[in-house]
Each structure stands twice: as structure tokens, then as C-alpha cells.
User: What shape does this take?
Amino acid sequence: MKTSVSTLHPVFYQIKKDIENKEGHAIETLRDFEVLCDNITEVTHDSFHVDTLRRLWNKRHDAYGTVRISTLNILSRYLGFSDWTDYSASIRHDSDSSEPTDGQKVLQTSDFCENAVITLAWIPDRVCKLRLMKPDAGEWEVLEVENSHTLIVGDTITAKYIVEGEVLYIGKIIRNGAETGAARIGLDKGVRFI
Assistant: This one.
């Protein structure tokens, strides 16, 4: 049974958007997160630490790459649903799941064909061209890269979702046949499609 969801999953972005809509504003400041914690506790009788919510909203340098279903169940109950499954079912898109969820482009690799090529950029001056090798697995080959210390030409990376304006969590990097581990790029204002 699945116990966690990628924080890059479009439905996760939607739940954050719905929570911000319920709050009546974007959740950005420490005070916003403190108030949200209190509101969640009041409605669900479950509590979060402020830093947990800040990590989920990618407002800390140690943001989460995945979120537990138990956490998503609480957030879903805060919105009036019985659990994450109930919430997810309520917002299934009738159209392509790579459409923007919060004014952002969301790329889900399973929606693209093998050998599709994209180019990403991130601050300060990083650019990377990727070729999709295995859509269902989210495996990309690095074709070109400029000014990155994380990626080099020939690397194979794993990323099933790429969301414009958000940090890209790379599940693993394979370099010269050896796995070098996970990575995050675009820590300052996320990645952009170019």
C-alpha cells in the first residue's frame, strides 16, 4: 500500500491551493503558518508543527520531497473530506493532468512520448536540456547543461513530475553507471521551462 506521495504531484499542489483558498490568502509568512496550524487543529483535532507545514509549502531549505498519506488525510479532513482518497477523487481532472494547477505548468512524464526533449532553467544562470528515456519511470538523460554543479552531460535522472516555479526533486542521478543519490535543483524560485 502506498504510504507517501511526491510533493511534485499535481494533486498535492491542488490541495495546497484549496487550503489557501479556504484561508483566503496565500500562505507565505511564519504567522500565516502559525494561524493555519491553529485552524487545522481546531477543525480536525490533529496538529502540525509550523515547520512541517513550511516544509510542505517549500518555504524551508529542507523542504520535503514526499508527504505521508497520513499527513494528506489530515489536510483533506481540514477541507471537509473524509481522507486523501476522497479528496483526490473529488478533483480528478477530466482533461490532461499536465495542465496548470496554480497558474503553473505541470509536466507529468507519463503524458509524454519517449525521446521528448525539454529545456529547464533556474537561478542564477543554470540551463539543462533533457531527453525523456522512459516516460512511465520518469527517466531523463541530460543532453546539455550550463553552469550546473549538480548535473553533467550523460547523467540519467529520475523525475516523474516537473512543476514550473517549484524546486525539482530528482529521485536519483545515475552517473557513469553508478547511482549518486537524490538532488534538488532550482532552490531559489524553482525551475522554468524554456
Notes: The first strand starts at residue 4 and ends at 6. Residues 93-101 have pLDDT under 50 and may be disordered.
